[in-house]
Each structure stands twice: as structure tokens, then as C-alpha cells.
Amino acid sequence: MSKIKVGISIGDLNGIGLEIIIKTFKDSRMMEFCTPIVFGGTKVASKHRKAIEMQDFNFNIIQSVEDANPKKANMINLWDDDIEIKFGEATSKSGELAFASMKEASNALKNKDIDVLVTAPINKASIQERVSTFIGHTEFLSGNFEGEALMIMVSEIMKIAFVTGHVPLSEIKKSITINNIIKKSRQLNTSLIEDFGVRKPKIAILGLNPHAGEEGLLGNEENESIIPAIKKLKESGVLAFGPYPADSFFTNKNLQKFDGILSMYHDQGLTAFKTLSFSDGINYTAGLKIIRTSPVHGTAYEIAGKGIANEQSFREAVFLACNIHKKRKEYIELNTNPLSI
Fold it and tell me: Which helix (H) or strand (E) holds 256?
């Protein structure tokens, strides 16, 4: 069986993206289960290797995915320009090239030249200077691939999705509807089954207000939207429970009890997730026909070029992308040819 081809976009050139890519694939054991293909620039990679004093590592330079060496970390050279690297700075040039890398990797994914996509951290504002319509990885992929994206943060101790994503706090309330909660819960339920191999997922649904509204004393969204949504989910066969107060939910006991968590908004869930799982956390874009993962952290400008970035989250993102690829194949095989009774 051929190894999984992992396409990798390099992220912001002035951040830690290339450093964590290099550190991850410097370990030759990574090539035992996947073939990495980085979409970037050789001159830029050389400058990063020099900056972090890792001259004993080299990419295998190729012109196309077909040329990839399964025993090497491969790089498709997208540009020959001598790009100036300004570690720790947000520049429009770094945004332009981060977008170019992501676009080329996405095209390869669309053409099925690669099996999965792992994206290094970007600076959204830098990309927006050149591509004004760009919002983020998730939104970009949603516009280019079949399905409806759901951001799931994944670690050893939890898998958490969100009713609302990159939405201003002032606009969150209008999105907390019965239909939205049901839709996101079902997406999470489907992903847990198809992508993670959980047969009957148990999903915890958080409240919106302090103390989950305290029976209407601190807000009505629980009574008007969240509780009715949970009732309908249960009636349809989804094992949804709650609403749970967010301030006291994230205990070891609760995290072990549930297979997935649905948070009402971005910071409600991510504050807890990043506190507990920052080093090994992964951002997974569920709901699409393709597989994309990313480390949970950002560009980390403050330590860029210093050789001290921790690659664990990126490495885990590679592992997860490959594991989901295998789980999806298993799910399809089991359901395409079910055993007759």
C-alpha cells in the first residue's frame, strides 16, 4: 500500500512555520508512514535552516508531486526569487507567498495529487493586504471544496466544535438558534463517527450564559434555543447532553465522559482548549470531502528565527491528518460492503 501523501503549505515566511516543518521532518521516522510534500521556496527554506542552525537537513527538491521521494521530505519550488526574510514582522510579501503556497497545495488536493493537507500558521491581515476577500483557512477551503466546514479542535483529552466561529461577540447571540445548534451538533456527530471511529458519540453541549442561564435568571438562550435543540437531537438519535455551564465543565471527569463538545462561540471553547492542550492541540476542518489539519498556535513572531519553536502541535497535525485519512477509508469500506445477516 502506498504511503499517504501529505501536502504542506508553509505559512507566514516571517513566522515559525518553516521551522516547525523542518524540525518535524528532520526525524526520518516520519517518512515511515507518510510522504511529505512542502509547497514553498528553496531559497527561503535555506534561510530558515541557517537561522535555526539546522544545516544538516535538506529538502528533496522536486518539480511535481509525481517526482516525490517517499523516503524524503520533498519541496516543490514555487518561486526562485531571493525573498527577504524579516523574522517577527508582518509584511504584505509574506502574506502574498503564504497565500500562494496554500493555493498551490489546495489545487494539488483538489486534483488528488496529495491525500491530505496540513497548513502552517498564517497572518490573516498580511494576506488580506493582497487578497482582500481572505478571512481564514477554514473559509478559504469552504469556498473551494464540497461540504460545509466545521472547525474542531482536537487533542488527547478533548474534541471541541463551535456553533459560531470568527464572529464578533456582538453578533453571537443572533446565531444561537435551534437550527444552528442542531446542524453543528450533527456535523460533529458525523465527524466523530466517520473521522474518529466513535460508534455512538456522546456530545456535551455548553450553555451560552453564565451558569447556563440559571433557569432563565441570567439569560433566555438556554430555554429558548439550546434545550429545545438538545431535545430534538436526542429524538433523532444523537446522544446530546446539556446545557453545561462553561465555567465548570472542563474537568477531567467531564472530558473523559464525552467524545465531543459543542461550544457556543470561539473564545468560550478555545480558552479552555488552549489552556489545557496548547502544545499538542490541532485545528481540524471537518465537514468537507477533503482533510485539512493545522497546529493550534499562530505565527509566534516573537520567537521566529530563534530555533526555539516547539514542533509538537505541527507533528500531531500530520499524525491526525493521516489517521483521519485511514479512518475515512475504513468507514467507507465497512459501509460500502456491510456484512449481510
Answer: helix 252-257
Report how far apart, in Å, the C-alpha atoms of 208 and of each of 32, 170, 263 are. Answer: 45, 13, 8
Q: How confident is the model at residue 55 (pLDDT cuts 50, 70, 90)?
A: confident
The packing angle between helices 312-336 and 178-194, to 10°, is 90
Task: Compute the distance between CA of residue 268 and CA of residue 158 in angstroms, rounded to an integer.
Answer: 14
Dist CA 62 CA 35 (whole Å): 13
DSSP-derived letter for residue 156 is S
Give the whole-number percent of the chain exceeding pLDDT 70. Answer: 98
Q: How far apart are CA 167 and CA 172, in angstroms?
A: 7
Backbone angles phi, psi at 93, to 5 degrees: -65, -45
Q: What is d(CA 138, CA 217) in angstroms, rounded to the nearest whole number?
A: 36
Chain centroid to CA 233: 26
C-alpha cell at 131: 487578497
45: number of Cβ within 10 Å: 22
Alpha-carbon distance of 300 to 168, in angstroms, equals 23
| Beta-bridge partner residues of 5 | 35
Question: Which class is 1-147+282-341 in CATH?
Answer: alpha beta
Say which CATH topology domain 157-279 has.
Isopropylmalate Dehydrogenase (3.40.718)
CA gap 241, 176 in Å, rounded:
17
What are the residue ranges spanned by the domains of the chain? 1-147+282-341, 157-279
Cα 317 from Cα 295, distance rounded (Å): 6
The answer to whether the predicted template modeling score (pTM) of the entire model surpasses 0.85 is yes
